Every structure is written in structure tokens, then in C-alpha cells.
């Protein structure tokens, strides 16, 4: 242990600003999670198979019963895919919740904490890796959708905006999952709690059925529900059927509202999660 | 004298439970401090505070000259920590783990890879380097964990029960590794509930019980608190016990005690090894045959018992330790 080496290590760390280290540390951590996916390919397989299953079930089993447009089941399939994309983004959050609780209750968190890395990078790295996985799932879902008859009718720039919106929202919502994960005592609780809050947002929404079919007391929640906004915006941008309820604000400006929701979630939950990370077990 | 670790008045409570009741610790640069105590005595809490993982309720501490509360980044760049469980990623290989921690220590990609290879080699893990940790044995995990804590060439190393749960051979291996690190000049703070471990590795020992420091000093100093050396003589014939005790009484510092069942005479002595020679000669002259003779120094178990009135709690210690504690020949 020569002092010379010690100094050179220190000189190495000194000049870079903290934000720069946050970026490199996050990349290192996200690489860890991506490697993990390659080691347990089953997890990715089931993350993919579940939404694909939903597409097939809803498209062919329930599709005929739900009326969203003039072309019957075909209209429904076009209506369904943006909804399933939104649902997938939501369900992916449960995975990161459990993953973060698992990490936090293991020794590796002590290792991270005893290193001179940016503490927030443990979370940004994890959420970035999750975003990459999500992007892949969204891609595969889009292909599956195409196979069952879903089409993009509007221009490429609208479609790109829709995918950008999904990615941003997916990233923002994982921070909610991360925050919940850090508040949970163990993975058993995390796996139920991580899903529990997702269900009302996912199902009390327009992703499977139009708002008009729901009881009036529920409709305001459904209209303002971020998941509904996301699905509605995607339908508009892709040019898929959008059976509207009326003329409410969320139905008039769904795209703007979706982006606002994403930014709001990020602004609230990223700092909360980092705080929870720093104070956990303190 | 330069202090690598200095803590004063450290206190921490979890709700109503007091984990640390205001303790002072000083560790000189390049030495090993053994923090000894049973489960729940506050060892791990102390390490976690010093390694910036936990915030003390009161008191202050500095490691490598940096304050653990206000200069966390600086402290983290000079310490290494090995906890009670292997703090590595199960799904990654040994090499991937070390490279990850190297990158997070802010080594360049090249340096991280080089350092990982170096450490894998040093800890005899090169063959297993590219296998997942899941397939590692307990001893290999601990070695990898220790390697991970050495990524940044720490000046101060915290080892929280580094051998708990290891089989005797792995423990012996771990001890050798730690001894080599100390020889390189690393300051080590080691917690253990194995009395023998503190005895073997530590220059100084602090004994903790219920969050208080109840004794400190060198292993020898602590032992002398409970009395000096004893010579234990096992005879061939039980009938000669009384006569043997009488013959050797002149070499003792106190009267001998005898145990018929084990054919043993125990004689407290002041002179240590010179007394052995005299006793052997005397008994031989009188044609009393000796089955076994050994110089016994008080064990840290004896120390603990006399300090706290209760034994160190871990009863598996005797079974786990590489050399049975009772049957051990005295070591200087």
C-alpha cells in the first residue's frame, strides 16, 4: 500500500465534477443490471411474454365484445395496442420495485455505500437499465401488434413522438417503483405492494374499454388517470380509434398532459427515492 | 503516533435499544484493532458508523483524518469494508464484480480491469474469475468480498466478522490473507466474536458488551487481568498425583490444584517456560511419568468471563475454531 498509489487514485477522482461522476457511475450500475438480464434470461422472457399474451387474449377473446369503431374486432385491435403499451409500461414498475428492495436488503448496498461513488447512481443506473428493457418490450409489442392488425396511420414524426412519450413516461414511473421499493421491508411485501397500486391505475383507465362504458362516478378518475392520457395520446398520434367521452381537458390535450405527468412524476419521485436511498438503514 | 481511526463518545440507539453507549476508540496507523464481543454488543454498529453507512446519534469520529459525518466522500476513498455477508452481486462473475466496483471507485476502465485481475490472482480466484458467484463456495465468496474491499487500495480496512460461518480451513486461509495485508501496512479494524481470532490477529483488543467498552489493551494485558500462566501436567498414573503436586509446589506462585479424573495437576506459575524445565526435571528425578505437559495462558474466554460475569455468547466457537481452544499449546 504505497502512498504514491493512493495519491494517484485520489488525483484521478478529483477533477471531474459531480455530475460527470453521476453519469459514469450510472452507466457502470446499469451495465450491472443489463448483465444480470443476460444471466437470467427467463426474467426478460416473462417480461415479454406477459404483454404479448394480453394482446392475443384481448384481441381475440374479448375483442368482439367491445365496440370502439365501425370495423368491429379490427377497430378494437387498433384501439387495444396503444393501451397494452401503456399497461406494459405500468407493469414493468413492479419489477424494479422488487429488484430495488432485494438489492437494498442485501450486502451489496453496503458495498455501494462504502464506495466514493455518487449515491444516486445506484438508482439512476437501475432505472436506466429498466428503461432499456422496457424499450425492448415496447418494440416487441409493436411487432406483435402489427401482426394482429394494428397499424400506424399518421406520419413518422407523430409516431416518434408517441414512442418518445412512452419512453419518458416509462422512465418517470420507474422512479415511483424505486421509491416504493426503498420503503418496503422485504421482497415479499415489495412484490405485492409493488403491484397493488398499479392495478387501479391500469384497469380504471381507457386502455381496454372506452370511458363511456364506465359508471359516471368513476369517469373523472379515468379521464385524468395518467395511464388513460398516455393511451389516448398514443391513439391520437398513431391515428387509431379514439372514442371520446366529451370535451374535457384531458381529452383535448392528452399529449401535453402525458408529458406533464411524466415530468411531474420525475420531479417528485426521483428526489424522494434518492432521499429514501440515503436514509434507508441509517 | 498517527491515528488512523479516532472515535469519541459514539452513541447510537435503535428506538429504545441502546446499541452504543458512548464509546471511544483509537487505532494507530498500521495496527490492527480487534473489536471483541458477543452478538448485540455494538461491534457492527461501530463499524457501520466508522464506514459512513450509519449516522451516530452523538459523538464524533474520523477515519484517515476525515470526519465520518461531514466528509463522507473523502472517508470512502480511503476505506475498504468487508461485512458479515459477501457484499457482491450474485449474478455477475467474480471479475465482473471487481470491475464494477473498480469503476465505481472511479478507476479508468483499463485500471479497473487490471486491478481486478491483480486481486483475483492474489486471492487465488483466477480459475473461478469468469464463473458466476452463485457457484462459489463460502470461502471463495469471502475472499472475493475482501478483494472487492481492496479495490481502492484502502489505508483503513474494516472487517466485520470476516470469518463467521467459514469452515476451519477457509478461516485459516482468511487469517493468512489478513496478516499479509497488515504486513503491507494497512490499518485494520476487525470485529469478531471468536476470541481466538482477536488473539491471533489483533495488536490491541477492545472488548465491547452491551454498547460499552469494558476492557482494552493487548491480548497479554487482558489475560494478565485474570491471572498469570498455569502449567498443566497430565500424569500416567492417578496414584502419583498427590506426590507430584507436593514435589513441584516450590516452582508455583500459588498452590497446585489436582483433578483425579483427568490425572491432571494445575500449577499457577510466574516464570512461564523456565518453570516447565524445572518441573520436568523434578518429576523425572522422582520417577513420575508424565503423559503430557503444557504451559497454559488464560484464554480470552477467561477474560470475558471475568470481565462480564458471563461467557462470550457464541457457544459454537470451540467447535468452529481451527485448533480446539482447550487443547491449544500456549503461544507467545
From TrEMBL, chain A:
GO molecular function: ABC-type transporter activity
Record bears the keyword Membrane: yes
Topology of this chain in the membrane: Multi-pass membrane protein
InterPro entries, alphabetized: ABC2_TM (IPR013525), ABC2_TM_bact-type (IPR047817), ABC_2_transport (IPR000412), Nod_factor_ABC_transporter (IPR051784)
UniProt KW tRNA-binding keyword: no
A single GO cellular-component term on record: ATP-binding cassette (ABC) transporter complex
Bilayer-crossing regions: 44-67, 79-100, 121-148, 160-182, 194-218, 259-277
Record protein name field: Unannotated protein
Automatic annotation (TrEMBL), chain B:
Keyword Transport in record: yes
Subcellular localization, as worded in the UniProt entry: Cell membrane
Any one of the GO CC terms: plasma membrane
Principal place of residence: membrane
Keyword Acetylation among record annotations: no
Gene Ontology molecular-function annotations: ATP binding; ATP hydrolysis activity
Membrane topology field: Peripheral membrane protein
InterPro entries per the UniProt record, alphabetical: AAA+_ATPase (IPR003593), ABC_transporter-like_ATP-bd (IPR003439), ABC_transporter-like_CS (IPR017871), ABC_transporter_ATP-binding (IPR050763), DrrA (IPR005894), DrrA1/2-like_C (IPR025302), P-loop_NTPase (IPR027417)
Ranges of residues in domain ABC transporter: 5-235
Biological processes per GO annotation: daunorubicin transport; doxorubicin transport
Keywords recorded for this protein, A-Z: ATP-binding, Cell membrane, Membrane, Nucleotide-binding, Translocase, Transport
Family: Belongs to the ABC transporter superfamily. Drug exporter-1 (DrugE1) (TC 3.A.1.105) family.
Protein name: Unannotated protein
Source organism per UniProt: freshwater metagenome
Amino acid at each position: 500500500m504505497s502512498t504514491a498509489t493512493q495519491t494517484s487514485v485520489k488525483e484521478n477522482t478529483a477533477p471531474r465534477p459531480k455530475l460527470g461522476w453521476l453519469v459514469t457511475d450510472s452507466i457502470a450500475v446499469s451495465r450491472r443490471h443489463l448483465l444480470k438480464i443476460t444471466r437470467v434470461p427467463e426474467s426478460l422472457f416473462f417480461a415479454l411474454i406477459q404483454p404479448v399474451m394480453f394482446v392475443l387474449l384481448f384481441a381475440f377473446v374479448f375483442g368482439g365484445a367491445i365496440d370502439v369503431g365501425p370495423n368491429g374486432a379490427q377497430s378494437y385491435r387498433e384501439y387495444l395496442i396503444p393501451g397494452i403499451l401503456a399497461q406494459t409500461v405500468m407493469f414493468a414498475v413492479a419489477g424494479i420495485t422488487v429488484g430495488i428492495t432485494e438489492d437494498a436488503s442485501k450486502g451489496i448496498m453496503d458495498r455501494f455505500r462504502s464506495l466514493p461513488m455518487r449515491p444516486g447512481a445506484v438508482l439512476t443506473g437501475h432505472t436506466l437499465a429498466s428503461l432499456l428493457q422496457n424499450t425492448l418490450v415496447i418494440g416487441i409489442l409493436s411487432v406483435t401488434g402489427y401482426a394482429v392488425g394494428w397499424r400506424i396511420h399518421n406520419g413518422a414524426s407523430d409516431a416518434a413522438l408517441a414512442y418518445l412519450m412512452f419512453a419518458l413516461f416509462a422512465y418517470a414511473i420507474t422512479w415511483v417503483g424505486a421509491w416504493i421499493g426503498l420503503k418496503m421491508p422485504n421482497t415479499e411485501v415489495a412484490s405485492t405492494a409493488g403491484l397493488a397500486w398499479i392495478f387501479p391505475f391500469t384497469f380504471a383507465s381507457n386502455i381496454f374499454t372506452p370511458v363511456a362504458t364506465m359508471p359516471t362516478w368513476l369517469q373523472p378518475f379515468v379521464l385524468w388517470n395518467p395511464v388513460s392520457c398516455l393511451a389516448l395520446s398514443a391513439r391520437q398520434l398513431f391515428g387509431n380509434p379514439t372514442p371520446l367521452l366529451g370535451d374535457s381537458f384531458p381529452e383535448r390535450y392528452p399529449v401535453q398532459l402525458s408529458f406533464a405527468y411524466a415530468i411531474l412524476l420525475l420531479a417528485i419521485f426521483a428526489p424522494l427515492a434518492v432521499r429514501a436511498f440515503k436514509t434507508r438503514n441509517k | 503516533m498517527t491515528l488512523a481511526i479516532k472515535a469519541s463518545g459514539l452513541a447510537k440507539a435503535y428506538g429504545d435499544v441502546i446499541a452504543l453507549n458512548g464509546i471511544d476508540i483509537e487505532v494507530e496507523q498500521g495496527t490492527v484493532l480487534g473489536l471483541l464481543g458477543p452478538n448485540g454488543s455494538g461491534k457492527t454498529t461501530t463499524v457501520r458508523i466508522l464506514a459512513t453507512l450509519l449516522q451516530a446519534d452523538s459523538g464524533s469520529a474520523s477515519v484517515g483524518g476525515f470526519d465520518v459525518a461531514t466528509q463522507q466522500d473523502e472517508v470512502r476513498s480511503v476505506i475498504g469494508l468487508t461485512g458479515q455477508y459477501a457484499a457482491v452481486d450474485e449474478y455477475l462473475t467474480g471479475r465482473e464484480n471487481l470491475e464494477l466496483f473498480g469503476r465505481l471507485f472511479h478507476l479508468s476502465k483499463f485500471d479497473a480491469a487490471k486491478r481486478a485481475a491483480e486481486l483475483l490472482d492474489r486471492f487465488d480466484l483466477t480459475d473461478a474469475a469468469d464463473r458466476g458467484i452463485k457457484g462459489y463456495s463460502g470461502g471463495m465468496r469471502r475472499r472475493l468480498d475482501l478483494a472487492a474491499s481492496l479495490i481502492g487500495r484502502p489505508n483503513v480496512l474494516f472487517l466485520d466478522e470476516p470469518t463467521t460461518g467459514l469452515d476451519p480451513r477457509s478461516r485459516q486461509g482468511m487469517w493468512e490473507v489478513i496478516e499479509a495485508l497488515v504486513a503491507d501496512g494497512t490499518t485494520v479494524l476487525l470485529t469478531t466474536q471468536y476470541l481466538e481470532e482477536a488473539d491471533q490477529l489483533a495488536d490491541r483488543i477492545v472488548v465491547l458488551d452491551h454498547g460499552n467498552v469494558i476492557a482494552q489493551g493487548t491480548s497479554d494485558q487482558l489475560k494478565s487481568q485474570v491471572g498469570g500462566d498455569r502449567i498443566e501436567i497430565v500424569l500416567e498414573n492417578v496414584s502419583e498425583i498427590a506426590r507430584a503436586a507436593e514435589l513441584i509446589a516450590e516452582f508455583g506462585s500459588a498452590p497446585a490444584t489436582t483433578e483425579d479424573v483427568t490425572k491432571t495437576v494445575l500449577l499457577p506459575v510466574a516464570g512461564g517456560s523456565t518453570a516447565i524445565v524445572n518441573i520436568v526435571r523434578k518429576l523425572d528425578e522422582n520417577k513420575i511419568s508424565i503423559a503430557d505437559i503444557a504451559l497454559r495462558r488464560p484464554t480470552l474466554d477467561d477474560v470475558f468471563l471475568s470481565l462480564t460475569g458471563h461467557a462470550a455468547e457464541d457457544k459454537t466457537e470451540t467447535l468452529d475454531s481451527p485448533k480446539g481452544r482447550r487443547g491449544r499449546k500456549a503461544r507467545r
